[in-house]
Amino acid sequence: MRRTFCERFEAALPALLVFICLTVLFVAAVNFEPTRRWVCYGYAVNESCVRRLLYDFQTLITGIAAVGAAALTVWTMQSTDRRQQQRHDHLVALNLRTEYLTLERAIVPFLDELRGRAELASSLHRKVMELEPGVGEAVWSEAQAIEEAIWATQEALETDEMIAALRYFDGATNRTYKKLLEAARLGGYAANRIATKSRDPQSEPEDVFDYWFEGMGGDGAGYDTIVWCLDHLVAAYPPFLERLEGVKNRLEDVRARYPNVI
């Protein structure tokens, strides 16, 4: 971080003071009259001796006083600047506190969970696209996982904390959020419908497979809906998670800058 002129001057002030004192002492030593000095010090200290001492060292005394006054001025200015900056930071932190806490409650607890759901959705998307007619066991085994991936996504996006944080998201983050939620809502019914059938103890794998494909071109509760949902989840999850990660990093920066308020 680049320092201000006052900060640089304050840091160099001790060296500057020493340099000025040494310079004044050197000049005084060059122009000093030893005979007059020893005569003065040979007598008891009196008014005449003090006047002579002040006369001989007036340049040194004046220089030291000037440097001391400059140091006091700089120190006072710097202290005032620090107090003003502290008050400013405190006010800024108070203004950011509500926004910070709202975003922190929404992102920190759910970010890792959403990452896991994104990985699960991507894996399931690949498996679903590889399904072939007649492979009922594959549908049976994946029905529960698909329901979990879709419903868990919808549940995380519809928490009170996430909804409260929406007002502080930027436009791009809000758009990806809405795409994810739309996909999860539309695919949730189909996933639940098929998973419920797979949990029926009377159902056979082939029955679940047939039930899976009933929605094609019909009520939108079958294979086509599942594929559409997973397509959109896989497309929307990466940019959404990337933006949430960026928000989390900014929250950490704010926390580090205003540790006493936030």
How would you characterize the largest beta sheet?
Answer: none
Order of helices and strands: HHHHHHHHHH
Radius of gyration: 38 Å
Mean of all residue-level pLDDT scores: 75
Structural class label: mainly alpha
Number of E-state strands: 0
C-alpha termini separation: 23 Å
- Measured by DSSP, the beta-strand proportion falls in under 5%
Share in helix: over 70%
Number of helices: 10
Envelope shape? rod-shaped
Low-confidence stretches: 34-46
Question: What does this protein look like?
Answer:
With 262 residues, the protein is mostly helical. Helix content is 82%, strand content 0%. The protein contains 10 helices and no strands. The protein has helices at 5-30, 34-42, 47-56, 58-107, 111-129, 136-157, 160-165, 171-199, 205-212, 223-257. Helix 8 packs across helix 10 (223-257). The radius of gyration is 38 Å and the shape is rod-shaped.
What are the main properties of this structure?
rod-shaped, single chain, 10 helices, 0% strand, 262 residues, mainly alpha
Brief summary:
The protein is mostly helical. It contains ten helices and no strands.
Task: Write the topology of this structure.
Blueprint: H1 5-30, H2 34-42, H3 47-56, H4 58-107, H5 111-129, H6 136-157, H7 160-165, H8 171-199, H9 205-212, H10 223-257
